[in-house]
Amino acid sequence: MKYENKVLLINILKKPIVSTLIAIFLGLLVAGGIIGALGYSPAMALNSLITGVFSRPKYVFKVIEKSTPMIFTGISVAFAFKAGLFNIGAEGQYILGSVVATVVGILFNFHPVLQIPMVILSGVVASTILGSFTGFLKAKFGVHEVISGIMFNWICLYLCNFVVNNPIFHKVSTSKTYSINKSGFITLLHEWKRSKEGIEYLRGNSFLSDILLKTDLNVSFLVAILVAITIWFILYKTTLGFGIRAVGNSPKAAELAGISVKKNVIKSMGISGAICGLAAALNISGVSPHGLYLLNMFENIGFNGISVALIGAGSAIGCIFSGLFFGGLIYGGNNVQSDLGIPSEIINITMGAILLAIALTKIIPSVVKKFIFRLKESDDI
Amino acid sequence: MENLPKKDTAEYFLQMKNITKCFGKFRALDDVNLNVRRGSVHALLGENGAGKTTLMNILYGLYQADLGEIFINGELVQIKNPSVAIDLGIGMVHQHFKLVQNFTVAQNIMLGCEVTSPFGVLDFKEFNKKIAKIIDQYGLKVDLKARIENISVGMQQRVEILKTLYRGADLLILDEPTAVLTPAEIEELINIIFKLTSSGKTVIIITHKLKEIKAVAQSCTIIRKGKYVDTLDVEKTNKHELAKKMVGRDVKLVVDNPPENPGEVVFEISDLCIKKETSENLFAVKDLSLKIRKGEILGLAGVEGNGQKEIAEAIMGLRKVSSGKITINGKEIQNLTPYEVIKNKVSIIHEDRHKRGLILDFSVAENAVLEEYRESPFSRNGILNYKAINKFTKELIKQYDIAPERCHRRRIRKLSGGNQQKVIIGREIHSNPDLLIAMQPTRGLDVGAIEYVHKTLIKEREKGRAILLISLELDEILALSSRVAVIYNGEILGSFSRKEANEENVGFLMAGGNENVA
Asked: How far is the C-alpha of B424 from the C-alpha of B445, rounded, in Å?
C-alpha cells in the first residue's frame, strides 16, 4: 500500500461516523451470534426486525414517536458532554418535566393558544431549575453531577408516584393519572380525525388513516430537529457556546482567560435540563395517555439518552440519527419477540454490545496504524 | 549474528551506529552515530525535538530502532525492553523523577528490586548494608528514612541516581539533570558526576545548556532535526561553536538589552500573604512587597516552589489572598475574578502552556481570542463573528511569524511549542496590558524561539510596559531584568539592580542564604 493511501485509510477510520458504523456492525454481529447460539436464525431475526420497522407507514411513524424523547435526551446529554459534564440526571429531569406538565395540564384549562405553551413551558422551566440546581451544587459545593443526578432521579421517581397516587390526579381503578385537558394536546388533527367527516375521509386513504389513527402523530420530531440545529448553533456560533466549550475542554485555561467555570457549569446544566423538560412536556401533550403512570422503575428515557449521545458521537445532529436507530431497535425488537419468540432483552444486549464496541473503536485507528506501518521495508513508504 | 566481527573498541563503552527511527513518515532519527568512551562524561546536545530523548529511549529499550546497531563493550546487543537495558548496566534518570511520593527513600530504591529473606519478607538490614556502601563510595548523601514528599529536589535526584547504581548501572543517562536545581545543587551534582566517572562509570547527559557542557563533559555529540551533526572535544570548542552547530545558524546567546528608562510605578504588591493550599496555618507567601515601574522588567528569581506560582495566580485572581494589597494604576485588584483582573489591564504568559495558556483542542483562531471573544468585533450580541476572528488571527500569525503560515483553523495541539507560545504572547500583548506577567516564558522552547521571546519582552519593555518576569533560569533573569528580586520560602530575601546582580549573589539567596552573611 502506498504511504498516502495508508494515511488516507487511517484518517477515514478516525472519522466518528465510520467508527460508529463499525461499532454498530460489531454490535449486531454479537447479537446475531447470541441469537444463533440460542438456536434461532439470526437472518430471520434481522428480517423480522426490519419488517417490524419498515413494512407499514404506521411502524415507521411509531418508531419516530418512540425515538423522539430519546433524541431530546440524547441531545441533552451530548450538550452536557461538551461542557465536560455527565448529565446522568437526564432521567430525573425528564420525569420532573412530565410531572409538572401533567399537573399544569390537568389543573388548568385555557384556550389551546394559551394552554399548550403553558403546559410545555412549565415542564421546561421545572427541568431547567432542576438541571441548574445540579450544576449549582457542583459549582458551589463541588458535589459531582453524577452523584447528585442519581439522587435527583430517585427523588423525581417518587415525586411522580406521589402525584399519581394523589386523589386530585389519580384516575380511579387505574395506575395512571387523568389525561391533561384536551386544550393542551398537540397531537395533529386530534379533533378532526375523530369527527364524522374525518373518519369518512380517512376511510378512503389508507396511508393517512394508518399514520393518523394508529399513531399519535405530532410535531415533536420536527421540534427535536430544530433543537438539534439550535444547540449546534449555540455551541459553535455564539459566545455562550464558546465559553461552554472552553470550560468543557479545559477548565483551567478557561478560568485564566476570564471565563467563569462555575457560571458555565450552571448554564450548561440548565440548558441540558431544559431539553429534557421540553422532551417530557411534548410527550405529555403529544402522545397518549397524556399523563403519568405509576413508576415501578425508571422508564429509561433519560438513561437511553446517554447511549444515544454516545452513539451519536456527542454531536447534537448525530443524536437525531442515533436516536432513530435506537428507537427502531426497541420498536422492531418487539416484533422480533412476537414473530420468533426471541426475548426482547436481546435488544438490550445488542445496545450494550454496540456501546462497548464504540468504546473500543477509538483504538481501531491506532491498531490499524501500528499494523500497516509495521509492513515497512517491503513497502514503498 | 555470531559471524559478526567483534569490534575492537575496548575504549568505548557504548557505540550506537547508524540509528534510524521513523514515526510514520517523520524521521525522528536519521543515521545517528554515538560513541561514548568508558569512564567519560558525554553530552548529548540538541534543541527540543532534535531527537536526543528518542535516541536515549532507544538505548534504554523503550523504542526499537528501525535501522542501526548498538554495541555495549564491543558486543552487539538487542535491547528489547528496559529490563534488558538494566541487565546490560544501563540506568536512566528521567527529567521528571519517577518516585513514589509517600514512600521512603529506602523503599523507593528497593522498589522492583527488593531484598527479601525467605517467605518474601523485606530484609532492610541486608539492604541497608548494600546501599550504605554505594552512598559512601559516591558521596550521595540521602536520608534513607525520609519520605520523598519531604525531601528537596536535589536529594530526589540523588535518590534516582542511587536507584540506577543499586541496580548495577555502569552507564548513567541523565536527562536534563539541572533543569530543576539551584546553582549550589548543580555544583554538587557536578561533583557527584566526577566521582562516578573516576570510579569507572560512564555518564551521558542530555542537555541544551552550553555552560554545563563546558563544566562537566569531555566530549559532546550534537544532533539537529534528527540528523547527526558532529562530535566535538569539549576542551577544544567554545559555547558559540556549540550553539551554532546545534541551531544551524549564528545565534545570539544573550539578547541586546539596551538601558531602560523606567517611568512611574504602575504595579504594586504590599504585605501580601497567601495561604498554602494544603494547610490553613502555613503560608506560601508571607508579607511580600514589590513595585514595578513603567518600562522595566522585574525579574523574580528563585527555585521552583518558593511561592512564585502562588504570587502569579493571586495577581490573576486564581487564588485567594489572605491579607495585603495588589494594586495596578492605583486600583486594588486582590481577590477579584480573573475576568475583572484582565479588564484592569493585567496579562499573563503562564508557565503551563498546555493546561492554563491554551485549549489544545481549540483552533489557533479560537485560542487567539480566548480572552476577547466577548468583545467587538469578535462577537456582536452574543453571536461570534468568525470573519473578524479569522482576520485577526491571520494578522497575528503574520506579525509573530507563526508557522505553519495557514494554520488559523488548525487545532493548536498540532503546532510546535515555540509557535504555541507565540500565539499566547501575541494574544496577551494584543490586549495592551499595563502589567505583563511572563512566567517561565521560554520553558521547553528551543534556542531560536527563546531568542524570539526574549527580544519580544525587551521590545515590550521599551514600549513602556511593566513586566514581571518569573523564571527558574538564572541566566534568563540576569539577561532580561532591570531589577532582580530573589524569592525564597515565600519571602523576598533581597533585590539587586541590573548592575549589582550576578550569578553568585543571586544564586546564594536563591538557596536561602542570608544577605548579611554574603
From this structure: 13
Give B92's DSSP letter. Answer: E
Q: Do the Cβ atoms of B469 and B300 come closer than 8 Å?
A: yes
Is residue A228 within 8 Å of residue A279, measured between CB atoms? no
- Listed in order, strand segments (DSSP E) in chain A are none
The domain ranges of chain A are: 1-40+343-381, 67-341
Q: What confidence score (pLDDT) does residue A376 get?
A: 42
Q: Which three cell numbers stand for residue B174?
A: 541523565
Mean pLDDT rounded to a whole number for chain A: 88
pLDDT at res. B401: 86
pLDDT in tens, B290-308: 999 999 999 999 887 888 9
* Residue A255 touches chain B, beta carbons under 8 Å: yes
- On whether the CB atoms of residues B115 and B183 are closer than 8 A, the answer is no
- Between B49 and B273, residue with greater pLDDT: B273
Q: Which 3 state secondary structure label does DSSP give B305?
A: coil
d(CA B387, CA B186): 52
Q: Which of B24, B318, B359 sits opposite A246 (nearest CB)?
A: B359
Contacts of A237 in chain B (CB under 8 A): 383-384
What's the pTM value of the predicted model, to 2 decimals? 0.80
Per the CB < 8 A criterion, the answer to whether B400 and B422 are in contact is yes
Strands in B24-61 per DSSP E: 26-37, 41-45
Rg (CA), chain A: 23
CB atoms within 10 A of CB B335: 14
The CA distance from A257 to B215, in Å, is 42
Q: How many CA atoms lie within 13 A of A205 on its CB side?
A: 13
Distance, in Å, from the CA atom of B223 to the CA atom of B34, rounded to the nearest integer, reads 10
Report which of B180, B130, B126 is spatially closest to residue B155, judged by C-alpha positions.
Answer: B180
- pLDDT (average), residues A208-220: 79
- Which residue of A238, A258, A259 is in closest CB contact with B384? A238
- CA torsion angle for A266, A269, A271, A272 (degrees, to 10)? 180
Which residues on chain A are in Cβ contact (under 8 Å) with B389? none
ipTM confidence score: 0.82
Cell (9 digits) for A68? 423522539
- Of the listed ranges A3-7, B54-58, B329-333, B384-388, the one predicted with least confidence: A3-7
Number of helices (H), then strands (E), in chain A: 17, 0
User: A373: which chain B residues are within 8 Å (Cβ-Cβ)?
Assistant: 24
Whose grid coordinates read 418512540?
A66
Query: Residue B204: enclosing H or E segment and its boundaries?
Result: strand B202-207
The rounded distance, in Å, linking the Cα atoms of A225 and B484 is 61
A16 Cβ contact list (under 8 Å, min separation 6):
A313, A315, A318
